[in-house]
Amino acid sequence: MIKRFFRFLLKLRGWQVADNGDPALDKAILIFAPHTSNWDFPIMLMAKFAWGFPVRYLGKHTLFQWPIGWFFRALGGMPVERSKAHNMVDQVVMMVEREQKIYLALAPEGTRSYTDYWKTGFYHIAQRTKLPILMYYMDTTSKTIGRSEPLYTTDDINADFEIIADFYKDKRGYLPELTSIVQTKAQYIANKRAESN
């Protein structure tokens, strides 16, 4: 009933949910891109309920304090300390390893604005926990919300990022000009050096 209701809401907004089945995984790291608009979160939140997956996401620990903390937890939020004294990747790895079942959603761009490269925390979390990455998208051209097949990381982050970049290359967000480049910071620096030589 809930899945049908949220699929109906999405349909009212012109969106269709690609139905490529249950990934049949107890745990996975979910990433979402391109992230270019304030509309991304509510649309993907509706998609979460339309799929029926128990998706969790990270939030600044202060959001989970009284009196509204219950609301963010009800939506699947997990509090984390973002200060330099607390290593985010270490925190999340421990949280993921404690859970028997978890789909943890992360936004590698980290912002709605354009960036020259992605943050790689999601990749290192997947690598350290040995969990697959599921790549989710909302494509405004086809008005489709969907995901990839599971991607397991290797020892070659550059090769893995090429696979991720290839998957997202034809996906357009609400504001395409704000779409960040799918590459690591190291790749960005290497490319800039190559351009200057």
Task: Furnish the topology, listing elements before pairings.
Layout: H1 2-12, E1 16-17, E2 27-32, H2 40-51, E3 55-60, H3 69-74, E4 77-80, H4 88-98, E5 102-106, H5 121-129, E6 133-139, E7 144-147, H6 157-168, H7 185-196
Helix pairs in contact: 1-2, 4-5
Structure notes:
The protein has helices at residues 2-12, 40-51, 69-74, 88-98, 121-129, 157-168, 185-196; strands at residues 16-17, 27-32, 55-60, 77-80, 102-106, 133-139, 144-147. By secondary structure, the protein is α/β, with parallel strands linked by helices. The protein has one domain. Strands 1-7-6-2-5-3-4 form a seven-stranded mixed beta sheet, sandwiched between helices. α3 (69-74) links the parallel β3 (55-60) and β4 (77-80). It is globular and about 60 Å long.
